[in-house]
Automatic annotation (TrEMBL):
PROSITE patterns listed in its UniProt record: PROKAR_LIPOPROTEIN
Signal peptide: 1-23
Family: Belongs to the bacterial solute-binding protein SsuA/TauA family.
Record carries keyword Amino-acid biosynthesis: no
Top-level taxon of origin: Bacteria
Entry keywords, A to Z: Cell inner membrane, Cell membrane, Membrane, Signal, Transport
Residue stretches making up the Solute-binding protein family 3/N-terminal domain: 44-279
Protein name: ABC transporter substrate-binding protein
One Gene Ontology cellular component annotation held by this UniProt entry: periplasmic space
Pfam annotation, one family: NMT1_2
Cellular location(s): Cell inner membrane; Periplasm
Main location: membrane
Length: 363
């Protein structure tokens, strides 16, 4: 701009140009500087997930440098249970949870937690376990009558199981005994020791279950093929301009990770080996298990479906006055997709498919 004012012009014209420069060009410069500053700024997030296999999309994004691409510094924090992780989120010890299910965040919301679901991570993928000797006993839901069934407190597979029983006309309060355990590890110990007959478990203990030669007699997908599980959840108060930008960048990295995981599953194995410390074949059987579908799409329609199921089976109470739309943010994911379409025009067709999926599952 200084060079511009050295040009010899008539005084009146000089004043006019200077005025235009201050009101017009100056504004553009400020916008450019602001945009550049936002681009260069490093954002930080503490991300919570459950013990066990970790969070595959998070692992892939980290391994492939997608967080770095977004100037995002992430710190992973693991927890033994969804309740522990969500309590930490509510207390401000972490900024966002990735693998705390759907049922648990919804339960917290029903009790007054000011959470916001901004994306997804996992759909399906939870095994139902039994002792090897009982592997052929559980063919239909009728076979669970009179049994001691272990579940995980406030866990998605538990809601899927109870809802399936109710839809089949089976009273889960009378026709069988459901025993809740605090953590997936506690449930694994119970089924291994025979304290329960069958366990409606979690994907996080799949590896340990296989090591103990427990039988997989079914999957949560068998009970409800379209059910969602792990949602990306944070506190509403963090969705300000600054933190909101950080969460949008997190979602962009996870969206890119979904494609890598689907098209190059071997990269998901390499990413997970950093913490699983197992051979490639074993890691592949865990992170690329065919019943587990990983996607960062919020899939709010299925979230709302589970909310209604939880109310109908009496799992949550006094929730009729809650509008769940107030606890789901779709804007961040949609903006993340739009930015990726603009930043990677050569991949626009791929991201358009994701946008079409988003519109189908959320709008």
């Amino acid at each position: 701009m200084k060079q511009f004012f050295r040009i010899s012009v008539k005084p009146v014209l000089a004043v006019l140009i200077a005025s235009l420069a201050l009101t017009g060009c100056g504004t553009d410069a400020e916008k450019a500087n602001s945009s550049e500053a936002k681009k260069e700024k490093t954002y930080e997030l503490k991300v919570g997930y459950l013990h066990g296999q970790g969070a595959p999309l998070f692992d892939v994004a980290n391994h492939e440098g997608f967080f770095e691409d977004e100037n995002l510094k992430v710190e992973g924090v693991s927890f033994a249970s969804s309740a522990d992780g969500l309590n930490a989120l509510q207390a401000g010890k972490i900024d966002v949870g990735l693998t705390f299910g759907t049922a648990a965040p919804l339960t917290f919301i029903s009790k007054g937690a000011d959470f916001s679901i901004i994306g997804g991570h996992l759909e399906g993928g939870h095994p139902i376990l039994a002792q090897p000797k009982d592997k052929d006993k559980y063919k239909t839901l009728e076979d669970y009558k009179g049994k001691k069934v272990g579940t995980i407190r406030m866990f998605t597979s538990d809601i899927v199981f109870r809802s399936a029983l109710a839809e089949a006309g089976i009273d889960w309060k009378k026709d069988l005994e459901i025993i809740e355990f605090k953590t997936p590890g506690d449930l694994l110990q119970a089924i291994s020791s025979g304290k329960v007959d069958v366990a409606v478990a979690a994907n996080t203990i799949l590896l340990q279950a296989l090591k103990q030669n427990l039988a997989i007699v079914g999957w949560s997908n068998d009970l409800n093929p379209s059910h969602v599980c792990c949602r990306v959840v944070t506190r509403k108060e963090l969705l300000s301009e600054d933190k909101g930008e950080a969460f949008k960048r997190l979602l962009k990295a996870l969206i890119r990770a979904e494609r890598v995981k689907n098209e190059h599953p071997e990269k998901a194995v390499a990413a997970a080996k950093a913490h699983l410390k197992l051979d490639d074949k074993t890691v592949d059987s865990i992170v690329n298990e065919e019943h587990s579908h990983y996607s960062p799409d919020p899939n709010s329609k299925e979230v709302k479906k589970m909310w209604e199921q939880m109310k109908s089976i009496g799992y949550i109470e006094n929730a009729d006055g809650i509008d769940l739309n107030d606890y789901i943010n779709l804007d961040l994911y949609e903006r993340a997709l739009e930015e990726l379409m603009n930043e990677y025009p050569e991949d626009k067709d791929y991201y358009q498919k994701l946008l079409d999926r988003f519109n189908k599952q959320n709008l």
